[in-house]
């Protein structure tokens, strides 16, 4: 959940300040579309630095079409020797990255983000700059270049990593846990073969978890018996159907008597 504090814009950029998540972390995101003119880009860099200093702390991300390369090896298919204006353009940008105190994220998947129709000229002009606070908040991030469609620019996506969301919640009818024959039916249908291999830990491992997640529409033991038999036939067609060696713990029954939304530990 996010809450927008305010939006702002200027020449070649638009931004938003928002509070993200239950901890209400402050994030500032600015999208840029820089002009080709060197002096216009210099004004843009100066205004972005000013915004960074005046808008305060938080997780910062500046992204978009910067229309500039940060080094000579970020351009291919043009003159090997950079012109004086190109060198000035790169110097302005490098100074901007230093003064704005953001990390110019490295690309994965491709080295360039813009390709000429002739297929020979290419450059990296689409960029994502993030702050240390952004990395602390979102964890390790990676910047991937995707496949392009009609545009001559390849889209890029900033992916987060290292988030452990925990077990996935699910709905389950509690009355199955109250039925004294429920456990016996599972053991009976699963068969002595699994008991010899893994005992109850095997029966109440991956197989039992799958049953719990998918039998909410079954309303009687006879229907449940047929349901488990069908699962058993499907599982026997696979290798290593029963590869769980841990133990099963009955979940605490919460919420309404009919449904349980919880997780297995």
The whole-number mean of residue pLDDT values reads 75
**What does the largest sheet look like?**
6 strands, mixed
Query: For the largest beta sheet, what order do the strands appear in spatially?
Result: 1-2-3-4-10-6
* Amount of beta strand: 15-25%
**Rough outline:** elongated
Distance between the termini: 27 Å
Radius of gyration, in Å, reads: 28 Å
Strand-pairing-aware structural class = alpha+beta
Supply the number of helical segments.
Answer: 7
Low-pLDDT runs:
195-205, 238-265
The overall number of domains is: 2
Question: Which terms summarize this structure?
Answer:
265 residues; alpha+beta; Deoxyribonuclease I, Chain A; 2 domains; six-stranded mixed sheet; three-stranded antiparallel sheet; 7 helices; 14 strands; 35% helix; elongated; disordered C terminus
Write the layout of secondary structure elements.
Layout: E1 2-10, E2 13-20, E3 25-33, H1 38-54, E4 59-65, E5 75-76, H2 84-100, E6 103-104, E7 107-108, E8 114-115, E9 122-123, E10 126-130, H3 132-138, E11 141-145, E12 156-160, E13 170-173, H4 175-178, H5 182-190, H6 192-214, H7 221-236, E14 259-262
Helix pairs in contact: 1-2, 5-6, 5-7
């Amino acid at each position: 959940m996010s809450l927008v504090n305010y939006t702002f814009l200027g020449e070649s950029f638009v931004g938003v300040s928002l509070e993200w998540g239950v901890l209400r972390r402050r994030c500032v995101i600015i999208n840029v579309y820089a002009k080709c003119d060197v002096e216009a880009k210099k004004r843009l860099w100066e205004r972005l630095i000013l915004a960074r200093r005046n808008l305060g702390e938080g997780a910062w991300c500046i992204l978009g079409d910067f229309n500039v390369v940060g080094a000579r090896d970020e351009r291919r298919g043009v003159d090997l020797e950079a012109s004086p204006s190109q060198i000035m353009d790169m110097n302005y940008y490098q100074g901007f990255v230093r003064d704005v105190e953001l990390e110019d994220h490295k690309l994965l998947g491709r080295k360039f983000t813009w390709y000429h129709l002739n297929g020979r000229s290419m450059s990296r002009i689409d960029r994502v700059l993030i702050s240390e606070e952004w990395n602390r908040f979102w964890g390790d991030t990676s910047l991937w270049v995707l496949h392009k469609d009609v545009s001559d620019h390849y889209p890029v996506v900033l992916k987060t990593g290292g988030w452990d969301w925990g077990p996935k919640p699910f709905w389950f009818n509690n009355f199955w846990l109250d039925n004294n024959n429920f456990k016996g039916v599972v053991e009976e249908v699963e068969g002595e073969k699994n008991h010899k291999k893994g005992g109850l830990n095997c029966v109440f491992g991956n197989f039992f978890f799958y049953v719990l997640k998918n039998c909410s529409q079954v309303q009687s033991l006879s229907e449940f018996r047929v349901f488990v038999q069908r699962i058993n036939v499907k599982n026997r067609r696979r290798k290593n159907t029963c590869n769980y060696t841990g133990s099963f713990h009955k979940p605490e029954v919460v919420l309404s008597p009919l449904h349980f939304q919880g997780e297995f530990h």
